[in-house]
Amino acid sequence: RLFLLDSAALKTGEQILKHNQPDAVEILPGIAAPYFIKHIYKELLCPVIAGGLISDKNEIEKLFQKGVLAVSTSIKELW
């Protein structure tokens, strides 16, 4: 899991992911996942899961269109 609070967190997360080579990465908040994919994903090529601050089906569709593989949410109506 990466909590992308700012650009420093993005850089730190990138280094951690490069070192550990995970099978997938969950980006929190989920609305930051497209930014992560645009700037970091090409170097890592691991599946991206978006989690947190996702409130409707339109957001989920947009995330899928931007390359997110899956979404985690506590909103049961979106399951």
TrEMBL record:
UniProt-listed Pfam families: G3P_antiterm
GO BP annotations listed: glycerol metabolic process; regulation of DNA-templated transcription
InterPro entries for this protein: Aldolase_TIM, GlpP
The protein's name: Glycerol-3-phosphate responsive antiterminator GlpP
Organism: marine sediment metagenome
Biological classification of the source: unclassified sequences, metagenomes, ecological metagenomes
